[in-house]
Structures are given as C-alpha cells and as structure tokens.
Amino acid sequence: MKIVTYNINGLRAAVRQGLLDWIEKENADIYCFQEVRASEQKTREILKDENQIMFFKDEKTSLTKYKKIYNCGNVPGYAGTLILTKKTPSLVKFDMENFWQDNEGRTTTIIFEDEKLAVVNAYIPNGTKRLDFKLKYLECLIKYLRELKEKYTVICIGDFNIAHKEIDLTNPKECKNRSVFLPIERSIFSEILDLGFIDSFRNLYPDKIEYSWRSYKSRQDSEKSNQGKNFWKYRIDYILYSKNEDLIATKCTMPDLIFSDHLPVIVEFDCK
Predict the structure, then answer these.
(1) Which residues are the active-site residues?
(2) Which of 8, 22, 88, 231 would you call most buried, defined as having the most Cβ atoms within 10 angstroms of its Cβ?
(3) Model confidence over 8-29: pLDDT tens digits?
(4) Which CATH superfamily groups domain 2-271?
C-alpha cells in the first residue's frame, strides 16, 4: 500500500503546474492533501468533477480510479483538506467528532472496517499568530487518536507544522523561540509518538537529513547560486502509524517537486 501526504499550498496553482499528471503517474493508493485553499465547488471544478455530487458516486471525473473526499472548510482561499482513495472507505469522519470542530476543514478521517484501518488527514495550524489555537488542536488530536486506536490501526498523516528534533531543521538555535520548534510543540509531538505511533521516515532512516518544507525564495536562490543550504528548511510533514505487526513501513521518500513550498511524503507499507 502506498500513501502520500502533500501540503499543496493552493490547488489551483499546483494543478496548473502539472499536479494531476503526477498523481496519475505516482499511482498511490491514498493521497492526503492539505491547504487546498479553494471551496468545494471550485475544487470539484479544478478536478473536473463534473457530476458535482457526493464522493461515493463521482464516476465521470478526472482521476477516475479515485474516490474524492472534500473537506474544504468555509474560509475562502484558506486551509482545507482533500483525500483521494482507490478503495471506497466504509466511513468518513470530518473534524474530530466531539473533540474538535472548526470551519477550516483541517481534519478528515477515512475508515476501512474490513481492515480495521483508520487514516487521519490532519492539517495542524501554524502557531506563529495562533499558538493557543494550535495547542488546543493538538490536545484534541491526541484524545482523538487515542480513541481511534482502541478500535483501529491508525495512520495519522499531514502537515504538523512541527520539527521534532534538531536534525529536522536547518537552524535549530535560531528557531528555538519560533513556532515550529518550540519546546511545548516538540513535547506534544513526542506525546503523540508515546501513544504508540511510529514516525515512518525517522524509523527507517534514523540519521538521514531531509526536509519537507523550504521557502519558494530559497528554491529560487539555490537554483541561481547552486547553494541554498543556508536557507531555513524543516521536516514538518509526517506519516505516523500505530505499531502493528501487520502494518510495516518499508520505504519513505520526499521527491523534490515544484508544485508547492512543501514536498510530498510518500510511504510504502507492507500489509500482512
């Protein structure tokens, strides 16, 4: 099973640059996108979802092999999540049930009852201006994941806006008082792992330095100078999965694509 998480920083721009062709070529089983930044109606138009109906019946669309699950929120041009899945889920949950509700489309869960598997697509808030909001979201996410784990193997993926360890960003000393690398954020991320979750990338590659976010400016300047190593870069996009001998991550990659300031995280699982 191949799963992708990708903060696309605006669906319109990413599609103009060729995102849909890449999705078809990558041929993953599940794609979880964050920061769609478009209404559901506009997202359906961009994906050529001509039927404009519920995701269980969208037959005459682009990406026809995938069921499309929209959670675009109600804030124009802001946040929003989207899931593409080859297999139709048994159940879809928006927000985090009784733990959290917002109007920004930040959390979508798909559940496959036959496999006892839940996949949570989460777009954790940026804490630069709304740290309290971010911490409250994370508090609720922990409670939600704990409850899901009682019934399912859980894969929690998305843009966490947290670099967990010093190895996960280029300038740890300069960032120690910035949201993304605050001690309280890192501690909460550790708490999620302590629930019994595995960081797929770090588990496979304990000492590898790789980042999932870099600014557009750093990309442009590095292309001009063939350097760019002095620009701040973070690993803040994760695919976490609950420990289970029947689900093992065997490969994790972050291809350097042009569609966003983030890179996708792609994990291949061996499912017994």
Answers:
(1) 123, 159
(2) 8
(3) 999 999 999 999 999 999 999 9
(4) Endonuclease/exonuclease/phosphatase (3.60.10.10)
